[in-house]
Amino acid sequence: MSAMQARTSPEIPSASLESLRALALDAGATDAVVIPAKDVLFDPRVRFKCMVPKCYMSGACAHCPPLGFTMQEVRDSVLSHGYAVFFKVEVPARVIAATGLAGYINTGNLDPEGCVLALGAYYLLVFSIVKRLQKKAGEMGLSSRAGFAAGNCRDALCHFQPLCGEIAGTGCRHPDLSSPSMESCGMDAFSMAARMGWEVFPIGGTCRPESVGHGTLMGLAPVGGRDAAPPAVLPRPQKPDLGLGQAKKSLAASRQAGFNLGILLRQGRDARTWGRFLANLADLTGSWTAAGAKLAHLFSGRPRKTS
User: What is the pTM of this model?
Assistant: First the structure.
């Protein structure tokens, strides 16, 4: 916080920025800092890497290149804020570097050890932290018109759905949680992490748990607009369909993805992460009952067409 405190403007008290940083930590971040918005790093090579070589999700998620916002649009949005809360969530190497993990993710299936589902919990945590920061900033009277998470929201929020709803023309199923990732918008999160002194291990599809210390997912929530625009109102979620018909579709979709009781039981090792995510949902939705309904909506699905 020393760099932030030295450059705090009189419009936003240090105590307000510190409370946002503390919220990120309380919501599950491993570490968090407040930086001037102008210190967010952009590099076109980051966004281009999503397309060459082509990522399996390129063009398959509304927030993933070549779709989504342009770098200039994102840069303008970030710079319209005074500061940004930059945070990280560390992921155990046994989860993020599990053998064969990339293959399961690319095909939309769950691995027998439950690492794909566990990794989803860490990504979901990042999405929820971003939204809690935006919500809190709005309550404090600070503008927060943009939020950026990690990875693609298609896998994290709609894993059991065959298509991104926005691309399919039915609309985003989780507008209250969905955010573009830092990397899809051309932000050089790795270089920013290095500036903070955070240890980051590059992880590819051939990594093994013993070769890396941990994985690092990063998120960013710009706060404190320089103009008089009102704080953003977070979109309302779609009303979940919890009827019998949807339950049958969800069961079929989960079976097709390889979900079973063994995978569910293996989530105990990452229960703390699931718990923090649920607590964030309760804060965002207003109650534990609503959070439970939201969780059910996240796990609802439709079977993929295989022919």
Answer: 0.91
